[in-house]
Specification:
Shape: elongated
Distance between the termini: 23 Å
Number of strands: 11
Strand content: 15-25%
Radius of gyration: 23 Å
Largest sheet: 5 strands, antiparallel
Number of domains: 2
CATH topology of the largest domain: Helicase, Ruva Protein, domain 3
CATH class of the largest domain: Mainly Alpha
Structural class: alpha+beta
Strand order of the largest sheet: 1-3-4-5-9
Order of helices and strands: HEEEEEEEEEHHHHHHHEEHH
CATH architecture of the largest domain: Orthogonal Bundle
Helix content: 10-25%
Oligomer: single chain
DNA sequence: CGTCCACGTCTAC
DNA sequence: TAGACCTGGACGG
């Protein structure tokens, strides 16, 4: 499940597993991979990792021998080499005994130990990639999690960029400005602020200050709120949530990224909107599914009918989302949570254990109306069958077959 | 069995 | 803004 948090957890995994491990020999690539060879071989080297947004960089560092003679044999590396990885839809790292290599391990780093172990880049779908001898992809913005200040500045200083013409849910996937946000994060972030996904991004962001008044807060247990923040109403803004929401996932730790136990139940419990039973979903202009609650917003793709106005419970203020101020302060998180719980339908069996390595949210039929035409169009929208007027028509109690494994707000 | 769907980029009409 | 790139799990018949 690779979005920013998973990439970062992957780097932590590599650093933890490879701490003290000496690797040796060449870096090997699977036969089937179309990614570049990694021209690196060394009799003793170490591996460390860092992450930035949706990229992970491995650094292979040759261990210098103590011998005064630093005779580097021909072909043996003596300088560190960086490899930058993109995880695609299914990439992750594993550190396993040589005889337990994953079927889809595509780049392999062998340890020097006797029962040899291997750090491998596993990527079932092979949408992932790696590039040796490069640094972070230049056209990607600062990391939403670990370069918050420059991330924020990068967005707010480029609001005139046409990239911000579009609806917020689609702009959030633009890695030039939101490096690390992916499909589940955009849904979770917008949900927290009750922001309709198809409101123009610029309109929402224009009102934000370049200085984050929450900057010095302990966001998690955020007991003390700065005076400035209090004046603002005490609510983190959209850009701040682009930072804190992903960090929540990082803090779930192994519950999210644990190739060993393959247990993602903690993560699924964390999700409040994405793939959650009771939420609405439609395809955005690029055919990606956006999950949300409430109004879709004015820039909703044509042909995807606006969802039936749910019988929004009492206090769903009818927001006028042309007014940024209003949007910025729409209903509080706690309010939302409460309301959601109320509307939640079925409950997840608490003993449910997700048999991982599978992709999240792949359970079916949560949103389509039973007999609705709901255009398929997977990643590649099948040619002629564009979403016709249908995909939207989300719930209304009826559908939402409370199938067994569907996600929902349990607890 | 077949269809739908998936946490993401890329490039080419 | 369509496809293309891939594999495989969940469902439906």
């Amino acid at each position: 499940m690779p979005e920013g948090p998973e990439l970062h957890l992957a780097s932590l995994y590599v650093n933890r597993m490879c701490d003290g491990v000496v690797f040796a020999g060449p870096v090997r690539k699977s036969e089937v991979s179309k990614n570049p060879d990694v021209p690196f071989t060394c009799e003793a080297y170490r591996i460390t990792a860092t992450s930035r947004g949706k990229e992970v960089k491995l650094t292979l560092t040759p261990i210098k021998s103590d011998d005064s003679k630093q005779t580097v044999k021909a072909g043996q590396a003596d300088q560190p080499v960086d490899i930058v990885f993109h995880f695609g839809m299914s990439g992750y790292f594993r550190f396993t005994p040589e005889d337990e290599l994953h079927k889809h391990a595509h780049l392999l780093f062998y340890s020097k130990e006797k029962p040899c172990r291997v750090l491998s880049f596993v990527d079932t779908r092979r949408f992932g990639s790696w590039h040796p001898n490069v640094s972070w992809q230049p056209n990607r913005g600062p990391c939403i999690m670990f370069e918050y200040k420059s991330f924020r500045e990068n967005v707010l200083s480029h609001l005139s960029d046409r990239a911000f013409d579009g609806p917020i849910c689609e702009v959030l996937l633009n890695q030039k400005y939101f490096n690390g946000i992916g499909n589940y994060l955009r849904a979770e972030i917008l949900f927290r602020l009750n922001i309709p996904p198809f409101v123009q991004a610029r309109t929402l962001l224009e009102g934000l200050e370049s200085e984050d008044v929450f900057e010095n807060e302990r966001s998690t247990t955020g007991m003390k709120t700065s005076d400035k923040a209090k004046k603002k109403g005490g609510k983190p803004d959209l850009l701040r949530l682009c930072h804190t929401v992903p960090l929540e996932v990082v803090n779930l730790g192994g519950k999210v990224y644990d190739p060993e136990t393959a247990d993602y139940s903690g993560f699924e419990t964390w999700l409040q909107c994405y793939s959650v039973d009771g939420m609405k979903s439609i395809q955005d202009h690029k055919g990606r599914t956006i999950w949300f609650k409430g109004h879709p917003g004015p820039m909703v793709p044509k042909g995807s009918r606006s969802p039936k106005a749910k019988k929004r419970s009492k206090k769903e203020e009818d927001n006028d989302y042309t007014d940024k101020k209003k949007v910025a302060q729409s209903c509080s998180e706690t309010t939302i949570k409460k309301r959601i719980k109320q509307e939640t339908v079925t409950k997840t069996p608490k003993n449910y254990k997700d048999p991982r390595p599978k992709e999240i949210g792949s359970k079916r039929g949560k949103t389509e109306k039973a007999g609705e035409v709901s255009t398929p169009q997977k990643e590649k929208k099948s040619t002629a069958r564009r979403r016709k007027s249908s995909s939207a028509e989300p719930l209304e109690g009826s559908q939402r077959k409370s199938g067994r494994v569907t996600r929902q707000n349990s607890k």
